[in-house]
TrEMBL record:
HAMAP family: NADHX_dehydratase. Catalyzes the dehydration of the S-form of NAD(P)HX at the expense of ADP, which is converted to AMP. Together with NAD(P)HX epimerase, which catalyzes the epimerization of the S- and R-forms, the enzyme allows the repair of both epimers of NAD(P)HX, a damaged form of NAD(P)H that is a result of enzymatic or heat-dependent hydration. Residues 6-289 form the YjeF C-terminal domain. This is ADP-dependent (S)-NAD(P)H-hydrate dehydratase. (6S)-NADPHX binds at A41, G112, H163, D230. Its EC number is 4.2.1.136. Pfam families: Carb_kinase. The keyword Metal-binding does not apply. It is an enzyme of class 4 (lyase). AMP binds at K200, G201, H202, R203, T204, G229. PROSITE patterns: YJEF_C_3. Keywords: ATP-binding, Lyase, NAD, NADP, Nucleotide-binding. It comes from Allofournierella massiliensis.
Length: 291
């Protein structure tokens, strides 16, 4: 039976920052996100990661995405990439991105990349060779679903963050079948693939490779908008790159994401709140907890 995620569990695993720390103390994160059609997804993932404490964040993206993200997040570093025929990153940039990944503490791959052959080619190049822990979200999961097995860096952590439709594609079943057995599906997939599964939705499930299963109780229907998952993916990768255990990086991100959304709904209402609004409330939660 799943264990409920609580505030005390989250802050037990999320330490206060040390007075003598610096940006290098909190990890180097590489995000491979965004295309001409989905520029906002990259911006939300990047800001989610920065607001969750990542020390140095580099975004590998095409120039229109970089312009959009740079206007919102001047703290980010950029690895400009050529645009491919499908409006995303040219797969020929794979080697440059791979070199950046090998100098990083975690890699986020997928938000807003586009469900294209170019995304699939990049994942084939990066997935098993990145040399750092990997978080797969959105179009990264769509690309992975078409591969014989989940791509993962050798002997390094892998976190996947599917919604029920993406989980259905990964498992080769219907969305209805996923929703009928969310806890057992997530747990079984995590064990079989030696990864952490964040199965999103009402009462999000977090499952680990050793049979651990957690259920989240924070969050509300105001999160039911495009972009919410991009923020969650960024937060998860930020905690991972700061050295949290992969399972608890996901657990902390899921609870905090939902708790911030609950505060946001109290301010703006579930109809009126937007995904980027919850970042203010996330900061309030950190401030109130001494983080």
């Amino acid at each position: 039976m799943a264990k409920e995620i609580t505030a005390s569990l989250v802050f037990e695993h999320l330490p206060a920052r040390k007075p003598d720390s610096h940006k290098g103390s909190y990890g180097k994160l590489l995000c491979v996100c965004g295309c001409s059609q989905y520029r906002g997804a990259a911006a939300l993932a990047v800001e989610g990661a920065l607001r969750a404490g990542a020390g140095v964040l580099t975004l590998a993206a095409i120039e229109p995405v970089i312009q959009a993200v740079g206007a919102r997040c001047p703290e980010a570093v950029f690895l400009p990439c050529r645009t491919g025929e499908d409006g995303g990153i040219d797969p020929a940039e794979g080697e440059r991105i791979l070199q950046a990944a090998r100098g990083s503490d975690a890699l986020l791959f997928g938000p807003g990349l586009g469900n294209t052959a170019g995304t699939a080619s990049l994942l084939e190049q990066l997935g098993e060779s990145a040399g750092c822990p990997l978080v797969l979200d959105a179009d990264g999961l769509n690309a992975a679903a078409a591969m014989p097995s989940l791509p993962r860096p050798a002997n390094l952590p892998l976190i996947i963050t599917p919604h029920p439709g993406e989980m259905a594609r990964l498992c080769g079943v219907t969305t209805a079948e996923i929703n009928a057995s969310r806890e057992s599906v997530a747990a079984g997939y995590a064990r079989a693939n030696r990864c952490v599964v964040v199965l999103k939705g009402h009462r999000t499930i977090v499952a680990g490779p050793q049979g651990e299963v957690f259920c989240n109780t924070t969050g509300n229907p105001g999160l039911s908008r495009g972009g919410s998952g991009d923020i969650l993916a960024g937060m998860t990768t930020a905690f991972l790159c700061q050295g949290l255990d992969p399972l608890y990086a996901a657990v902390c991100a899921v609870w905090l994401h939902g708790a911030a959304a609950d505060r946001c709904a109290a301010r703006l209402g579930q109809y009126g709140m937007l995904p980027h609004d919850i970042l203010y409330d996330l900061g309030t939660i950190f401030a109130n907890s001494g983080r």
